[in-house]
Amino acid sequence: MPFSKSKLMEFPRDVIVGHGVIKDIGKLCERINMEGKVAVVDGPVTKKLAGDAVINALKHDYDVDEIIVKNATMNEVRRVLRWVKKNDINFVVAVGGGSVIDIAKLASYKAKISFISVPTAASHDGIASPRASIKQKGNSLSKEARSPIAILADTEIISKAPYRMLASGCADVISNLTAILDWELAARLKGEYYSSFASSLAKTSAELLIENAKFIKPGIEEAIWIAVKSMIVSGVAMSVANSSRPASGAEHMFSHALDRIAPGKALHGEQCGIGAIMMMYLHGGDWEAIRDALREIGAPTTAKELGISKKDIIKALTMAHTVRKRYTILGTDGISKEAAERLVKFTGVA
Fold it and tell me: Rounded CA gap, 104 and 107, in Å?
């Protein structure tokens, strides 16, 4: 019988990371053969940070339109999609943080056109991933999309974002360590598809941050360089897997549960980092190494630092298994309130 397996893996064709590289956006578009009309998607704040600079750099060689977006909701995605189709846009350049990139990513995917990721903050690995996190009916949903055709990350611009966002992005990537353990568990117990290559990439991106935690500090541009590289590798891991599995397990389900219980109190990556501490404890792994790395970077490691009550942490732990149909260390029945109370006590989370 002939070999018949096939799989689609899409990766960014070009990645530029460095100081002052925003000026090279035009050359980047030319190098990857972008043609026609371009839409620059940015936000009210990111327009001033980098959006205007991108537009000025592109308008010499391209017909440029701009659309300003706000929250990452399906309504905003549909608005951008309608606008892209109405104006015959050929490709999109997303200039902003997670929300802007996710909106542009999903809208361009639905319009079947390419998009370039130009992050102005490094708050999570969505800058390079094929998934978009969109709020729908008050819940954060991970939507299938496509990886950016290229990424341009100007470390000078990203360094101007609040340091808390960078620390959150690092915590998000470090949480890959528990996500891949959950994936391995699902493969062993449920026969779920598993990619050792994707898992290795996700693990490498997390370990790079742990090994360099002492260098990731406010005001150090090299910290941006290290963090962005890790986030890009984490995004590529999801492209290899054609799934968010290498970077999303029980720790993400815990974070999404917190979004429902205590919306807007903490950043996504911050919640995932604390989730990873607890899930690694359940896996019997070195949860203290995760906690220590997060402390070194300056990300929260306790409920108090997260700004969320112990009661809400425990409630999120007990309902996390219901957030999505994905087998993890929490199993299909979740954990009891008593087990959750012991978990937060033993790990020092609350």
Answer: 5
Interaxial angle between packed helices 176-190 and 196-211, expressed in degrees from 0 to 180 and rounded to the nearest 10: 150
Query: Do the Cβ atoms of 273 and 300 come closer than 8 Å?
Result: yes
CB atoms within 10 A of CB 2: 3
In the numeric block, which tokens belong to residue 94? Answer: 């997303």
Query: Taking the complete model, does pTM exceed 0.85, yes or no?
Result: yes
Burial class (CB in 10 A: 0-12, 13-18, 19+), 90: middle
% helix, strand, coil for the chain, step of 5: 55, 15, 30
The residue count for the chain: 350
Burial 5-16 (b: 16+ CB within 10 A, else e): eeeeeeebbebb
Using a pLDDT cut of 70, give the percent of the chain over it. 97
Could you count the other beta carbons within 10 Å of the beta carbon of residue 143? 17
Helix (H/G/I), strand (E/B), else coil: 70? coil
d(CA 294, CA 288): 10
Q: Which domains does the chain have, with CATH numbers?
A: 14-158 (3.40.50.1970), 163-347 (1.20.1090.10)
Cα–Cα distance, 192 to 102 (Å, whole number): 27
How many CB atoms lie under 10 A from the CB of residue 206? 29
User: What is d(CA 243, CA 70) in angstroms, rounded to the nearest whole number?
Assistant: 26
Dump pLDDT digits (tens) for 222-246: 999 999 999 999 999 999 998 999 9
Report the distance separating Cα 254 and Cα 256, nearest Å: 6
